[in-house]
Write a structure and sequence with these properties.
2 domains, seven-stranded antiparallel β-sheet, 22% strand
Length: 584
């Protein structure tokens, strides 16, 4: 550079994709003018162990690698509701602020969330509730899962060549009759489940607990970008059903959220509002024995389904003792029977606590390898004896929420329609979006969980209430077969690694819901992938809003007189709300 040359301070590097050469464009001020010189930078040529951008660019993720997504834990000496929809959490927290207990809040949250995110759950579905009563130190499980109608005939579900392309890779049924339409509708149990919880554990009037849901249904759930996204995934199926199309596809397509913060439309849930009002006034058995039951049964029969009035009349939720499993110094209360509770216990049994969690603070690669092995082994037993099969290929339609009140009572609820938008059938007389619970059954005869009349569904729900020293926690998740992996790991993070609730929910996880791969959160170190690769092929991915590659959990924790709550950090609607936030 000549004496009069003065560097401008700007250098631009160029990469030639064809030759892999790198050039430096250096700008200098020379004689009052700016000039550039292009100089080739000496860099190693590609060898057999060196890959260029051209080699890898097609495999790169679209998503930002510098973005951080997180949530702060909600802390209060009062009660907290952690739910996948903030409006529903607010309804539950307001119930606590009015003097209700955790069960009162759970009932209010359940019906409100069925309006706020109707494609996930609602009165047309089923699920389970785990209840802990601090005064008596007792825990029970209320099972309100769906079951097949008594008049169901397996011959109405003829098999054809191919494999179903939804949640479970069953042999395909002609016309997807077990997947969508009225023929896929099982006997719903949610309303009676909430009624059973109310009769045994609640303190407020049934009518009052339905008011938040009624108020939301009367104005209709708000259409935002997430509503648009979820609806868009099912446009073609929703278009087949006249009422579902009218409500969810205004102007013949998925509703569009406004590009600004001004304005915004709402879905028409006026028929649902009338149904909820009827339930509030007449009581929950109206759904199973009253005029509402007749309207439900008549609509389903008219559409070709097998659900009858007698199926509704004969449905009753069951309350039972939890499955108790001791994991190290922690006692875990799990859901029993046809849920994933026993599978979670079996997976934890497969973890060698002498070699697991030996590094304080957070799990290392060897810990995740142990978890992957243990979960896969437990899943193999489940598949061979209980009838579930490799799933997780389509989006499930489940929600989970957790409640703790100021007295220390705790509730975890997981409720579902099964697939997103369930059967894609909305009953015109009642405005109820109905489940597709028949999909839970194997359409091939002679197998575990084969399709038949009057059978209870095998589900993946996995609520847990755990006691670890002075801390008590309640966890649940949505996500089909992703649920158990998520709940188990969060439980381990809390009990084996001593994490706080906030740390546990931000810790990267793996998912073992697929038979042939383990999904690894890309925030986990690369040695985790290398370790798991010794046993299973892995796929690294990001925790995103859609689709969920991992389960979508919510949780509460009580330590002494302090309560905490948090939801899945990538969930745009999920939030934990304390009663002080709605009363003050």
């Amino acid at each position: 550079m000549e004496e009069e040359d003065r560097p401008l301070g700007l250098s631009i590097f160029h990469y030639d994709l064809r030759s892999s050469d790198i050039y430096c464009e250096a700008w200098v001020a020379r004689g009052g003018c700016y000039n550039a010189s292009l100089v080739q930078v000496q860099a190693p040529r590609r060898g057999k162990h060196t890959m260029s951008i051209a080699d890898t660019i097609a495999d790169l993720s679209n998503f930002s690698q510098s973005q951080f997504v997180g949530k702060t834990v909600t802390t209060s000496s009062e009660g907290i509701v952690a739910a996948q929809h903030r409006v529903a959490a607010m309804a539950g927290a307001a119930t606590l602020a009015e003097g209700g207990n955790a069960v009162d809040a759970a009932i209010a949250t359940s019906f409100t969330i069925g309006v706020a995110e109707p494609w996930m759950s609602g009165p047309g579905g089923g699920g389970a509730m785990m209840v802990y009563k601090a005064e008596t130190n007792e825990t029970s499980v209320i099972d309100f899962n769906m079951r097949s109608p008594g008049g169901l005939d397996p011959a109405d579900f003829p098999l054809i060549d191919g494999v179903a392309d939804d949640l479970f890779p069953w042999t395909r049924v002609r016309g997807d009759r077990n997947l969508k339409g009225a023929t896929a509708i099982a006997v719903p149990g949610l309303v009676d489940g909430m009624a059973t919880a109310h009769a045994k554990h609640a303190t407020m009037f049934w009518k009052d607990l339905l008011q938040p849901a009624i108020a939301l249904a009367e104005v209709g759930p708000c259409i935002d970008w997430y509503t648009s996204l979820m609806t868009l995934a099912c446009v073609s199926d929703l278009a087949v059903d006249p009422e579902a199309s009218r409500v969810f596809l205004p102007r013949g397509n998925a509703p569009t959220a406004p590009w600004t913060a001004v304005g915004g439309e709402r879905l028409d849930f006026s028929a649902m509002a009338k149904t909820l009002k009827r339930l509030a006034e007449a009581g929950p058995r109206e759904y199973y024995e009253g005029e509402l039951a007749r309207l439900i049964a008549n609509d389903v029969q008219r559409m070709g389904g097998s659900l009858r009035l007698s199926d509704l009349q004969g449905y009753h939720a069951r309350e039972m003792a939890p499955l108790i499993y001791n994991h190290g110094d922690a006692e875990l209360r799990l859901s029993p029977e046809l849920t994933a509770g026993s599978t979670m216990a079996a997976a934890l049994e497969g973890v060698d606590l002498k070699s697991y969690a030996q590094s304080p603070g957070q799990p290392v690669a060897a810990d995740f390898r142990q978890l992957a092995r243990a979960i896969h082994n437990a899943q193999d037993v489940r598949l061979g004896t209980m009838g579930d099969v490799d799933g997780g290929r389509a989006q499930t339609c489940t929600t989970s929420f957790s409640v703790v009140d100021k007295w220390g009572n705790m509730v975890v609820v997981t409720q579902t329609l099964l697939s997103i938008f369930g059967s894609k059938v909305m009953l015109p007389e009642s405005g109820l979006l109905m489940n597709n619970g028949i999909l839970w059954f194997d359409p091939e005869p002679g197998n575990p969980n084969s399709l038949g009349p009057n059978k209870r569904c095998l589900t993946n729900i996995c609520p847990v209430i755990g006691v670890d020293g002075v801390r008590m926690f309640g966890l649940g998740a949505s996500g089909g077969r992703k649920i158990m992996s998520a709940v188990l790991q969060l439980t381990s993070f809390l009990t084996d690694f001593g994490m706080s609730l906030e740390e546990a929910f931000h810790q990267g996880r793996i998912d073992c819901s697929l038979a042939d791969h383990v999904i690894v959160d890309e925030t986990l170190p690369k040695d985790v992938v290398a370790e798991i690769d010794q046993d299973f092929p892995t796929v690294r991915t990001k925790r995103t809003v859609y689709p969920y590659a991992f389960g979508c959990p919510s949780g509460v924790l009580r330590n002494g007189d302090e309560n905490q709550g948090i939801t899945e950090i990538s969930s745009p609607w999920g939030d934990a709300v304390s009663e002080t936030q709605v009363s003050g």
